[in-house]
Design brief:
single chain, alpha/beta, 4-stranded parallel β-sheet, 4 helices
Length: 213
Amino acid sequence: MKILIVGGGLSGSLLALQLAGRKNVGEIIMLEKDPQLLGRGVAYHHDFTYQPLNVAAAGMSLFPDRPDHFVRWLEQNSFRYHHLLPFVSPKTFVARKIFGDYIVEHLQKAHHEHAASLQMRIDEVLAIERKNGKLQAILESGICLHADHVILALGNFPPGDLFSDKKNVRWPPYPATRAGTHQRPGSPGSENPAAPFARRFIRPRLRSWALLG
């Protein structure tokens, strides 16, 4: 059996770790187009040195059967992060970069221990098709991979462009009453607090289009 995991962030990495530890799973191939995001995704990138996790260390283990695994790892590796981690406890909210290091380390360890079954490739999936009862993924490199199962672990998509549809964008957002003021219903003559910001930063870039909440 061959399993393709499309996406190498946290979701894809967690799945790869769990599958690699099972017997008779077959071949697992994890595909990620950006080598900088392999294991980390966007949320646990190198740049997030001072942005803390939303959950304390006690709730961040990669392994459900070892809930204290991340805390134990922090205790063993705290010397690497003395400037970011003055002390370790289950209630510590560590930097996202540190958790990313934790993911990458164990993903590499699983890859080493299960090299015959777990592959990690840097490539982009352009299409997934069903052909002759099998699934096939067409990659940007031109390779076509056949699989029994394809799992999408795509993470969060980038936000949409709020200004792409100009038909639904108004400037100014409220009827103008005099220079520099915009009348909000129920508050005659009041200045929209976002208007100065929009006039300075948004409007020049969008040729008189702006969207204000």
